[in-house]
Amino acid sequence: MGRRLVLGSMLSGLLIASVPVAQAAQALAPAKPVKVVATFSILGDMVKEIGGEYVELTTIVGPNSDAHTFEPTPADVKALADAQVLVLNGLDFEAWLPRLIQSAGFQGQQLLASQGVSVLHLNPAEQAHDDHGKHAEAPKEADAADDHDHPQHTSDVDPHAWQSLQNGIIYAQNIREGLIKAAPAHRAYFKGRASVFIEQMKKLDAEIKLAFSEIPKNKRKVISSHDAFGYFAQAYGVHFVPLAGLSSQAEPSAKEMAAVIDTIKQEGISGVFAENMTSSRLASQIARETGAVVGGTLYSDALDVPGQPAASYLGLITWNAGQLIYVLKGGLTKG
């Protein structure tokens, strides 16, 4: 995938002679990498997979960092001010982003990675009302003229759409097209890398579905730290009972904790999972009171540090699925 795109090496001497020397030199010079800013680590990895050596990437919210509580720094302002492309999730995930865009005076291309996904509503009643979900929308016409579209403001939807590999494919397609728009000379390179990346996602998606299909549906129930796995649940038929709401910093009340404990006991839920950006204290407490197993750490909003299994997008999905399957199949053995 890392092979450099080779520009034509056998140009006609007559063709070169027919254009000014300066113009010919510019045509033959290698294009500079596109300066891209990705809002958080998962998007950053996708950009890196597709953009390769023709992207100069800055990721604002890094590994094991919480995008919910993030506050931009002067370095972030400078990076965005110098960028040509901003890759964002949208769906109100990056609440701090409008302020950062304004501070940086960014006028480049905003690439909405979630464009076209079928989003899930946070309110179950809303979801039932709209059987097919709403779709992340394309940029408004008024903004398209200066290529400066704005993030969506759709607070009734779950922004964690990347937790489904089918949505991950849509993200990759959007990133591919955005990079081609920014650097059309590297179209074949970006398309080739995106094609490999997408095929890897399709293969992994099929493997995960097969693994979960071997577990009875009524046994696919776990407790998670916060409400970040709705798309994973929909894709693979796993029921997550979150301890808290959408924010990873939310804390359940004593009444909510008691209700979760009752649910675990009544429904025979076998696994409790903490996340890489949340404390494992509550998971351990619940396990002590119910006998449920504390599973491995799940990754929701951020990758792990380089060198770890969940340090890439595909690694994150593989790790999460593996931890869930291990605990759920263990619960079957004990039950």
UniProtKB/TrEMBL annotation:
It holds the Pfam family ZnuA. One of its GO terms (molecular function) is metal ion binding. SUPFAM superfamilies: Helical backbone' metal receptor. It comes from the Bacteria. Residues 1-24 form the signal peptide. One of its GO terms (cellular component) is cell envelope. It is found in: Cell envelope. Transmembrane segments: none annotated. Its main location: other. Keywords: Metal-binding, Signal, Transport. Gene3D superfamilies: Nitrogenase molybdenum iron protein domain. InterPro entries: AdhesinB, Bact_metal-bind_prot9, Lipoprotein_PsaA-like, ZnuA-like. One of its GO terms (biological process) is metal ion transport. Residues 128-159 are annotated as: Disordered. Belongs to the bacterial solute-binding protein 9 family. This is Zinc ABC transporter substrate-binding protein. It comes from Pollutimonas harenae.
